[in-house]
Each structure stands twice: as C-alpha cells, then as structure tokens.
Amino acid sequence: MDEKTFFILWFFAIGALFGSFINAMAYRTRHRISPIAHSRCEGCGHNIQPWEEIPIISWFILLGRCRHCGARITIRMVATETGMATLYAAAASMFYQDLTRLVILLLGITIIVYIGLTVSQSKGEHT
C-alpha cells in the first residue's frame, strides 16, 4: 500500500470517529445530556460498551439493534459516520500535499455537519 492510500484510509477512519462523536454531541446538546456521560441505549438505558461503539462496524455487527434489549439503532448514526468518513477521505485525497488546507477543510466539514445534525434533530420541536 502506498503512502497516499494509507493517508486516505487513515482519514476515512478518523472521519468515522468524528462522525460518531459529533452525532453523540448533537444528540446530547439537544437533550441537555452531559457531553462526558456514557452512551446509553434509548430503549432500555443500558450502558453501551466500547466494542459496541466502533463506528460503522458495530452497527452492522449488531444488525442495527441494541445488544441488550433489541431496540433499533437509528440508521442516521451509521449514515453520519459513513458520510463523515467519506468526506474526510475525499478531503485527504484532494489536499494530501497541503496539511494546513486539509485541517481547515476538515474543521469546516465537522462544524457544518454538527450544525446540520443539531438543527435536524430539533426540527419540529419548540423550545
């Protein structure tokens, strides 16, 4: 595997992690939950274990359901993780030689997706 391919795959993984993180932060912000609280199943309140939180992979292994109670895990989670992973990989591919621009672009992508998630989760709700 050449250096550029490794770089792109690395940023795909980082993008998936950031997608998972901002998805959780958007949800927690909207529901006024502490940002450092453990992730829990919305159905049964079971603490989600670290191996159940691996971006993209865990959703498929668990077949989109809580391991404890079987409640559905929204596809929005895996869609956000996959989307962020793809955006990060594409940005890494385009700005492989220019790390400053890459970091600025990734920061912008992350902020825009976070705002979008926060707005979409609050759509139709009145505060």
UniProtKB/TrEMBL annotation:
Prepilin peptidase A24 N-terminal domain residues: 14-93
GO CC term, one of those recorded: plasma membrane
InterPro entries: Prepilin_pept_A24_N, Prepilin_peptidase/N-MTase
Single GO MF descriptor: aspartic-type endopeptidase activity
Pfam annotation, one family: A24_N_bact
Biological process according to GO: signal peptide processing
Keywords: Membrane, Transmembrane, Transmembrane helix
Transmembrane regions: 6-26, 102-120
Protein name, as recorded: Prepilin peptidase A24 N-terminal domain-containing protein
